[in-house]
Structures are given as structure tokens and as C-alpha cells.
Amino acid sequence: MKHLLYLKDLNQETINQILDTADNFLDHNNQPIGSEDLLKDKTIANLFFEPSTRTRSSFQIAARKLGADVINIDEEHSSRAKGETLIDTLKTLEAMGVNYFIIRNKHSGVFHDLLEHIENRSRLINAGESNISHPTQGLLDLVTIRRHKKDFHTVKAVILGDLAHSRVARSLTEGLEKMNTGEIILVSPKDYEPDMTLFKGARYTDNIESALRNADVVVTLRVQKERMENETQFIDLSQYYKDYGLTSKRLELCKKDAIVMHPGPMNRGVEIETIVADGPQSVITEQVTNGIATRMAILSIIEKSAG
């Protein structure tokens, strides 16, 4: 694996390699035993052109644990604000000796263009592309699910929320399908129904109660107002919570050992009730911890493949 652009490009063997490597790091409290200097003398650039807390911070922590130098660049404080193209930004950083580019971009279709222009020694990781993909989030979610539900084949997974604008839903569905998950159900109001041609292996419903019945995994998603083109797409959030919020009452429809997930950031009282987000079935904080291990695993595998 030379780059990580889309989860759908990975085969099951590579996904399992990432999950196994992440598990190993987690079993050692996210310490890179034997890999402390794997990225020594490497420089990683975090280029985030959309807001991020979890992804950028966890990539920075993961890279430093593996011995890399890390620089953080955002659009406001870079020459991108002066009209420089992303390709020219990368070429400038390559000239400074940067080896890895971890990029979040609000526009779709950028990564294949970048591959045509970067040097052969450079490595590219997608940290979130528009509403198209978020492969590292999808992978850390697979890590989290597997640590609680050992066999994907028997899992009923429900992804609930603003599916029309969610890159997380896209990538997680791709990963669940690759792992031959038993059942993948997508749930949203009709206003946020996704293009199901993009969600191979899943089925859609707007009936939240039927979807949640006997679920093993529930992933809730926030309403992404920033991706809505006009106010006609907005919905009443209090009504959304009433109709589609994951409440403790609705959680009772799931299996007693079901886990509750959320990629963050959460809007409590909109897509999820606080008592559920902080309850015993929630693994939301665990997802954040697993994110560091998963991104360490991705960096490790890419570096070893390059070597």
C-alpha cells in the first residue's frame, strides 16, 4: 500500500492487516513497541482545508509516536489564501523534503489529480474529501467494531443520520461490505436519502424503529448544515431529534450488547441523547483512542511497503 485514497480500493487482506496492526498497538496502550523510529527522518505535512479536531490531532500524535517530524498547514495561513494551487503547494513542500501528505479537502476529485503530479517518493493519505470519502475514519470504525463483535458476518450494522452529506457513511459502508458484514442498513429522513448506487451492499429505509430492531452496531451521524447548498435543505432540528434521534428508548430496540458509535463532533440532543452518548453501550471515546492506533497502523504499513 503506497497511498491511502479510498477504502473501496483496499482488499480484505489489506484491511485485516491494518486492523491487526492497530490491535497490536492498542494492546500496548498505543505505544509503537519496536517501531519508535520507523518514521525517523521523515517529515509529514498535515494539510487540512476544513476544520478538524480528531483526525488532525490523531494523525499528528500517531506520526510523532513513530518518530516523524510533523508540520500543520491550514488554508488561512498558507499561500493557498493567496491563490496558490494545491499542486503547487505540494511541490513546494516536496522541495523542502516533506515525505507524507495527509490532506483534508472540501472539494471532490483532488486526490487522483495530485497523484499525477507528486514525486514517486511522496506518500498521499486522504483525511477527508468533501462528502465523498473518509477512509481512515472508516478503518478506525472497523477496528472498533471488530474489538467488540469478532465476526463481521453475524453483525447487523445500522448507520443513522444525514446520509446525503456524509463521507463517513460512504467509507464505513465500503469497509463493512469488504468485510462481508451480515447486514448493513442506512436510515435517514427522506430529505437526506442517499444515492444508493454509491452504497454497495447496504439497504435504505426511513423507518428507524424497524432498522434498529436487533441491531448489533449503531452509528449515528450529525446533520451537516455546512454541506447544504441552500436553506430549503435545512430541517427543524428539534423535530429531527424527535423523529430520528438515538434515544435511550430507541436503543432498547437493539440487542442488549449493541454498541453505539459516532464519528464526532456530536450534536447532543439532535442526533443522539446525552444519556446514550455517555452510557455503558457507547464506544464513542474508544473510537477516538482507536483512531490513533489505526493511523499509526496505516503509516507503518505504507512506510514498510515503501521500504
TrEMBL record:
Q: Which Pfam families match?
A: OTCace, OTCace_N
Its pathway is: Pyrimidine metabolism; UMP biosynthesis via de novo pathway; (S)-dihydroorotate from bicarbonate: step 2/3
Q: What does this protein do?
A: Catalyzes the condensation of carbamoyl phosphate and aspartate to form carbamoyl aspartate and inorganic phosphate, the committed step in the de novo pyrimidine nucleotide biosynthesis pathway.
Entry protein name = aspartate carbamoyltransferase
Instruction: Provide the species name.
Output: marine metagenome
**What keywords does the record list, in alphabetical order?**
Pyrimidine biosynthesis, Transferase
Q: InterPro entries from the xrefs?
A: Asp/Orn_carbamoyltranf_P-bd (IPR006132), Asp/Orn_carbamoylTrfase (IPR006130), Asp/Orn_carbamoylTrfase_sf (IPR036901), Asp_carbamoyltransf (IPR002082), Asp_carbamoyltransf_Asp/Orn-bd (IPR006131)
Q: What class of enzyme is it?
A: transferase
Catalytic function, reaction form: carbamoyl phosphate + L-aspartate = N-carbamoyl-L-aspartate + phosphate + H(+)
The EC number(s) this enzyme carries: 2.1.3.2
Biological process (GO) annotations held by this record are:
'de novo' pyrimidine nucleobase biosynthetic process; 'de novo' UMP biosynthetic process; amino acid metabolic process
Q: Does the keyword Ligase apply?
A: no
The Aspartate/ornithine carbamoyltransferase carbamoyl-P binding domain sits at 2-146
Show the HAMAP family listed in the entry.
Asp_carb_tr
Which PANTHER family does the UniProt record give? ASPARTATE CARBAMOYLTRANSFERASE, ORNITHINE CARBAMOYLTRANSFERASE, MITOCHONDRIAL
Q: Where is the Aspartate/ornithine carbamoyltransferase Asp/Orn-binding domain?
A: 155-301
Q: Name one GO cellular component term.
A: cytosol
Molecular-function GO term, any one: aspartate carbamoyltransferase activity
